[in-house]
Write a structure and sequence with these properties.
The complex is a heterodimer. In chain A, 52% of the residues lie in helices and 0% in strands. In chain B, a hairpin with a 2-residue loop joins strand 3 and strand 4. In chain B, helix 5 runs antiparallel to helix 6. The longest helix of chain B is centred in the middle third of the chain and has 15 residues. Chain B is globular, with a radius of gyration of 21 Å. Chain B starts with a helix and ends with a helix. The mean pLDDT of chain B is 91. The chains are: A mainly alpha, B alpha+beta. Chains A and B meet through helix 1, helix 2 and helix 4 of A and helix 4, strand 6, helix 5, helix 6 and strand 9 of B.
Chain lengths: 66, 353
């Protein structure tokens, strides 16, 4: 069952008729979004957190606590 | 006349605790107000409602119910290990999925792996929800994300405030909250995102002004004015509308993707005529699958509430171990539901055990 949670292919909204209207992504829209997100990910990988404007670097190194 | 310490404390009690105090009074339970600090102990002291139930003492504040510790001071959450579990949304989802209950597919990322979160989102084909793994009260929850810029901005916003973020499918349907007080669901409400209903002659902006005027007039606790801003504009755009659009009569127009009271949502309680009754059974069974869960609010999305639970028709979003009670006692629509009375009855059972 864990595979189901982790599988990107499962991460999809499918219905079009719910309120508020949520039209599914058209194939071209999905491809355009995918490429844009990949480019953004590459920028994040290459950019120090401080340059991104994030303050998370210290917290990210800390161990999460309950 | 100088005010007593109790008077001063009473004035600072949160609204949830005031309602709980009233329920205790109705059932003849002794209570008072004390200043206390829960974990982490570095927190400043706050007013807590102290309930003396038989030989047991409980504390209540902002939805949290604590048992008394050995020294009589604030102790563990009444849900014990379930409170720890449910603070972690991803772990809760994993437990639910293992037990056979549907949750939105998604994945957890530490914020120092933001690039991985974006790569994961890149492969998701539908609309996406980004939220903190340990957030509460709807803080920084971004459902219905559609374009890359919105997803990126949401990830950055969560990363600025939290250590972990969830990227998951934004599942379609209505948000229903089931309030569980062991061993059963005691109330159900629909959390309708900020919305207005068209009249065939008024612009969206005019309808919003009218709704906000009604908010001001009725002053229903826990219901706030509809906020303006980018979220409103985006929500209208996805429905092909602007603030200047005139909406046909009886058309429901949504004004925000999130269903939190602070964002203008309406709480609609449901004594009868809610989702198919089998959902209650399903939710109760899910709660029984969480060890030690005694009190909780189970947030679900139901695609077609009239249809019974089935794959693809409902998902459990999360479980809140310290849920607010005000929307049930003060709904925008529907009858008030005495959640606090149910909780007090549970505490009486625990004290008698």
């Amino acid at each position: 069952m864990q595979d189901k949670i982790d599988s990107p292919s499962e991460c999809c909204g499918k219905k079009e008729s719910d309120e508020p209207e949520m039209p599914a992504l058209e194939p071209e829209e999905f491809l355009k979004r995918r490429e844009a997100l990949k480019k953004m990910a590459a920028v994040v990988t290459a950019t120090p957190p401080a340059v991104l404007g994030l303050l998370y670097s210290k917290r990210a190194l800390a161990t999460s606590g309950e | 006349m100088m005010a007593s310490e109790q008077d001063i404390l009473a004035g600072s009690l949160d609204a949830h605790a005031v309602v709980m105090a009233d329920a205790a009074h109705r059932r003849g339970i002794d209570y008072d107000i004390v200043l206390g600090t829960s974990w982490p102990m570095s927190r400043p002291k706050r007013p807590w409602l102290r309930l003396s139930v038989g030989a047991c003492v409980f504390y209540y504040r902002l939805g949290r119910i604590l048992r008394a510790g050995r020294d009589g001071d604030l102790g563990r959450h009444v849900n014990g290990s379930a409170a720890t579990l449910t603070r972690n949304k991803q772990r809760t989802k994993e437990v639910l999925v293992r037990a056979g209950y549907p949750t939105p597919p998604g994945r957890l990322f530490r914020i120092d792996a933001l690039d991985q979160a974006l790569l994961y989102a890149a492969e998701c084909r539908g609309e996406i929800c980004v939220k903190p793994n340990r957030g509460g009260k709807g803080d920084l929850v971004f459902p219905m994300l559609r374009d890359a810029d919105a997803i990126y901005r949401a990830c950055l916003d969560v990363a600025e405030g939290y250590e972990e973020l969830l990227v998951e499918a934004s599942v379609p349907g209505e948000v229903w909250r089931y309030f569980y007080v062991h061993p059963r669901v005691v109330a159900v409400k629909h959390s309708r995102p900020a919305s207005v209903v068209g009249d065939g002659g008024t612009t969206v902006l005019g309808l919003i002004d009218g709704k906000n005027a009604e908010r001001e007039r009725r002053r229903v606790i826990g219901h706030f004015p509809i906020p303006s801003g980018p979220a409103l504009t985006a929500m209208l755009a996805r429905q092909g509308l602007t603030l200047e659009s005139v909406v046909p009569a009886e058309r429901l127009v949504f004004l925000n993707a999130a269903s939190n009271g602070a964002l203008g949502a309406d709480s609609i309680t449901c004594v009868e005529g809610g989702p198919h009754p089998l959902y209650v059974q399903r939710i109760e069974a899910a709660c029984h699958a969480i060890p030690n869960l005694l009190v909780g609010a189970i947030d679900t999305v139901i695609r077609n509430p009239e249809q019974p639970p089935s794959d693809g028709n409902f998902w459990i979003l999360e479980i809140n171990s310290s849920p607010g009670v005000l929307p049930y006692h003060f709904p925008w629509e529907g009858a008030a539901q005495d959640i606090c009375g149910e909780i007090i009855a549970l505490l009486e059972c625990l004290a008698a055990a």
